[in-house]
C-alpha cells in the first residue's frame, strides 16, 4: 500500500494524518490544481455535491449513497470546512482522493475556503487543537487559493420541464404513457415514491418542490447595481436544453456575463471582499427582478431574468450551486434553470434538514430512463430501465440522504421519548416491538412529525443468532441502530456496510476497572451493585458493552459504536445533564434526558466510545456537541487489549 493509500485509509477512519504528511499532500495538490483552469471541464456522468462543512460521518454516508471514488465521478462545490467537528479529516480525505484519482473528483472553492472565514467559523481552531500549531491550517489555506472557481459539465442530460406543471399519477395519463409524463421520482428509505416531477408542461398545477417563478415580460431589461454597468434581458429564454451545466459555489456576478470572463480572473489569492471572484462564491438567487444587494454583506442577489439571460448567452441548460441551506436537500428555481444542492444533513447537528446529491446522467446514447434517487435502498433499481421509448431523452437524478433508525424495544419508556425526537429531525424510524397491541401507542408518537414512522412486530427473544438479526436488518435497512444489549445484533450490525452507528444504552457502573476520575467510595458502591445486588444483570451488560467496543474496533472506518451509560433512571422531567466522564455510581438521571442525550449524541457527529450520563447543569445539546468536539471517551482505563481480543 502506498503512503497515499495509507493516508486515505487513516482518514476514512476519521484519524488525522501526521503534519509532515499533510504538508506533502498539500504540495502535491497544489501542483495538480495549478494545471486546472478557473473553470474545470468535467464529462458526464457526474455526481454533484453541495456543502459538507466538516460533517465527516455524513460525508461517509454520501459516499455510501452515491458510490465510492473512483467508481463514481464526483464534483464537490465547496464549503468543505467550518462549523462541523471534522473539517480537517473531511477536507484532507477529499484532497487525498483528488491526488489519488485526479480525473474522478473535482473540487471547487466555496466562500468558507478562506483565511478570514476559517478563523471565525472553526477550522483554524480545529487545526490548533489537533496539531498544536497553525501550520496545517496554513498548508490547507494555500491549497484553497488554487481551487477552481467553477466547473462546466458537458454531455449531461438536463432537459427537465418547469416544476410548475402537473404531477399526476402516470398510470392515469393518456396515450403518451409513463415515460412521457414522469421525469423524476424521489423515494424515501422504504423505496416509496414521495414526489414526482412531470414532463408534460400543459398543466398549471404547482410542482412539489421549489417555487415556480413568475412570468417575465419579453424584451424588458434589468440594470445591475450602480457602477457595474451590468444588465440582464428577461426574454424568457431558459438556455439550451442540450447545453452544458455550470457549477459554482454561490452564483452569478454583475461583472461576469460570459464563462470566458470567469476564466480570465486571478483566482490564486485570498477571497476578496468584493468583485467578480467574491460574487461567484457569495451570491444567491432570489425572487426578484434583476440584481439586488445581498443581506450577507458580500455578493449579490439575482433574479430569474439574470439566470435565463446568462444561460442563453453561454449555451447552458442549468446552473448548479450550493451555498444555501435548503431543508429538502435541493431546490430548483426559475423554470429549472438553476438548482441549489445541499449535502450536509442535520446541518450544524441541529437543523433537521435532509441532504441531497445531484446525479447528472449522460445524454442521447443512453436511451430513456425513469430516474430515481434514494439514499437508503438499492439505487440501481431506479436508474436502469433501458427498455423504454424515447431515445435521446436526458435526465437528472436526485438522491436524498437521511438517516433510518432501527429502535429495538420501541415500547420502552426511554424509546418512547426518543421516537418523536428522532422523527422531528426528519429521520425515518422503525420501532421494533414484540406485542401487536402496542402498535397504537407507538403510531401516536409519529403524529405531526416530518419523519416517517414504521412499526415492526418482532420479538427480540426470537433473535437467537447473528443470522436471525441479519434477517431483520435486511428487511429494515437501517443506517443507525439503538438498543440496550444483545451480541447477535451487535455482530450483525458491524458486519452490515449500510449500518454506520450502533448506540447501546447501558448503565453507569458497567465496567471492570475503576475510572481514574472516580473516588474509592464510588467504585466500592459500583462493585457492590455489580457483584451482590445485580450480578446477572451486570455480567450481561458488561459483556455487551465490551463486545460492542471490540466489534467497533474490528469494523473500523467510519462505524460509530456508542455506549451511553446513564445513572439510576427516574421519571422526572429532563433538565440539564452531565455527559462524558461523570461522577460514579449513585447518581440519577431522568429517562427523558437519556432519550435526548442519545439523539443529540448520534446527531452530533460523535465518533464513538463510552459516555456516562447523569443529571447536571449543562444543556443536553451543548453537552453532546462538547463531547463530540473534544472526543471524550469514558472507556479510558479499561483493559483495551483484552476487550479488543473479544472480536477474534
Automatic annotation (TrEMBL):
Every Serine/threonine specific protein phosphatases domain range: 108-113
Keyword Manganese in annotation: yes
Catalytic activity: O-phospho-L-threonyl-[protein] + H2O = L-threonyl-[protein] + phosphate
GO molecular function: metal ion binding; protein serine/threonine phosphatase activity
Pfam families named among the record's database cross-references: Metallophos, NAD_binding_10
SMART domains: PP2Ac (SM00156)
Record keywords: Hydrolase, Manganese, Metal-binding
Region (Disordered): 194-239, 367-394
Biased composition (Basic and acidic residues): 378-392
PROSITE patterns in the record: SER_THR_PHOSPHATASE
Known EC number: 3.1.3.16
Feature: compositional bias, Low complexity: 201-225
Family the UniProt entry places it in: Belongs to the PPP phosphatase family.
Name of this chain's protein: Serine/threonine-protein phosphatase
Species annotation: Diplodia seriata
Amino acid at each position: 500500500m502506498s503512503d497515499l493509500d495509507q493516508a486515505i485509509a487513516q482518514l476514512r477512519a476519521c484519524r488525522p494524518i501526521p503534519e509532515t504528511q499533510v504538508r506533502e499532500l498539500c504540495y502535491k495538490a497544489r501542483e495538480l490544481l495549478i494545471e486546472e483552469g478557473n473553470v474545470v471541464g468535467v464529462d458526464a456522468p457526474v455526481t454533484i455535491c453541495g456543502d459538507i462543512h466538516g460533517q465527516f460521518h455524513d460525508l461517509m454516508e454520501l459516499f455510501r449513497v452515491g458510490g465510492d471514488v473512483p467508481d463514481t465521478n464526483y464534483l464537490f462545490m465547496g464549503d468543505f470546512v467550518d462549523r462541523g467537528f471534522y473539517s480537517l479529516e473531511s477536507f484532507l480525505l477529499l484532497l487525498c482522493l483528488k491526488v489519488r484519482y485526479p480525473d474522478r473528483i473535482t473540487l471547487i472553492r466555496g466562500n468558507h475556503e478562506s483565511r478570514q472565514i476559517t478563523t471565525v467559523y472553526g477550522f483554524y481552531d480545529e487545526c490548533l487543537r489537533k496539531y498544536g500549531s497553525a501550520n496545517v491550517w496554513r498548508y490547507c489555506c494555500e491549497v484553497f487559493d488554487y481551487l477552481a472557481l467553477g466547473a462546466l459539465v458537458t454531455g449531461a442530460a438536463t432537459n427537465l420541464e418547469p416544476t410548475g406543471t402537473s404531477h399526476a399519477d402516470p398510470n392515469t395519463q393518456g396515450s403518451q404513457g409513463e415515460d412521457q409524463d414522469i421525469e423524476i421520482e424521489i423515494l424515501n428509505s422504504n423505496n416509496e415514491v414521495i414526489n414526482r416531477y412531470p414532463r408534460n408542461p400543459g398543466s398549471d398545477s404547482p410542482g412539489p418542490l421549489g417555487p415556480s417563478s413568475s412570468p417575465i415580460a419579453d424584451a424588458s431589461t434589468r440594470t445591475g447595481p450602480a457602477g457595474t454597468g451590468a444588465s440582464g434581458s428577461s426574454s424568457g429564454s431558459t438556455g439550451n436544453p442540450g447545453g452544458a451545466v455550470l457549477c459554482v459555489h454561490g452564483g452569478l456576478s454583475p461583472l461576469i456575463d460570459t464563462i470566458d470572463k470567469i476564466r480570465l480572473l486571478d483566482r490564486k489569492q485570498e477571497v476578496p471582499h468584493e468583485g467578480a471572484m467574491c460574487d461567484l462564491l457569495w451570491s444567491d438567487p432570489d425572487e426578484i427582478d434583476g440584481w439586488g444587494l445581498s443581506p450577507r454583506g458580500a455578493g449579490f442577489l439575482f433574479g430569474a431574468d439574470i439566470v435565463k439571460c446568462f444561460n442563453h448567452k453561454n449555451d447552458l441548460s442549468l446552473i448548479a450551486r450550493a451555498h444555501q441551506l435548503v431543508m429538502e436537500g435541493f431546490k430548483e428555481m426559475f423554470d429549472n434553470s438553476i438548482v441549489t444542492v445541499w449535502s450536509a444533513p442535520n446541518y450544524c447537528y441541529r437543523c433537521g434538514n435532509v441532504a441531497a446529491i445531484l446525479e447528472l446522467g449522460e445524454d442521447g446514447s443512453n436511451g430513456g430512463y425513469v430516474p430515481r434517487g434514494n439514499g437508503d435502498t438499492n439505487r440501481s433499481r431506479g436508474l436502469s430501465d433501458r427498455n423504454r421509448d424515447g431515445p435521446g431523452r436526458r435526465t437528472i437524478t436526485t438522491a436524498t440522504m437521511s438517516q433510518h433508525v432501527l429502535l429495538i424495544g420501541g415500547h420502552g419508556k426511554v424509546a418512547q421519548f426518543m421516537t418523536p425526537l428522532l422523527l422531528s429531525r426528519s429521520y425515518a424510524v422503525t420501532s421494533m416491538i414484540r406485542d401487536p397491541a402496542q402498535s397504537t401507542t407507538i403510531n401516536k408518537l409519529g403524529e405531526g412529525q416530518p419523519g416517517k414512522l414504521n412499526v415492526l412486530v418482532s420479538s427480540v427473544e426470537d433473535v437467537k443468532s447473528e443470522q436471525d438479526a441479519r434477517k431483520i436488518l435486511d428487511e429494515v435497512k437501517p443506517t443507525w441502530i439503538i438498543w440496550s444489549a444483545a451480541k447477535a445484533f451487535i455482530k450483525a450490525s458491524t458486519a452490515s456496510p449500510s449500518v454506520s452507528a450502533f448506540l447501546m444504552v447501558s448503565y453507569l457502573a458497567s465496567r471492570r476497572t475503576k475510572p481514574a476520575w472516580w473516588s474509592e467510595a464510588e467504585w466500592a458502591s459500583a462493585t457492590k451493585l455489580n457483584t451482590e445486588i445485580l450480578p446477572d444483570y451486570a455480567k450481561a451488560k458488561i459483556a455487551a458493552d465490551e463486545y460492542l467496543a471490540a466489534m467497533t474496533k474490528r469494523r473500523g472506518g467510519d462505524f460509530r459504536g456508542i455506549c451511553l451509560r446513564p445513572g439510576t433512571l427516574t421519571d422526572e422531567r429532563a433538565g440539564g445533564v452531565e455527559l462524558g466522564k461523570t461522577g460514579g455510581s449513585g447518581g440519577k438521571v431522568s429517562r427523558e434526558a437519556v432519550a435526548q442525550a442519545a439523539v443529540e449524541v448520534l446527531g452530533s457527529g460523535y465518533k464513538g466510545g463510552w459516555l456516562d450520563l447523569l443529571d447536571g447543569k449543562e444543556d443536553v445539546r451543548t453537552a453532546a456537541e462538547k463531547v463530540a468536539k473534544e472526543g471524550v471517551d469514558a472507556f479510558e482505563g479499561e483493559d483495551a487489549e483484552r476487550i479488543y481480543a473479544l472480536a477474534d
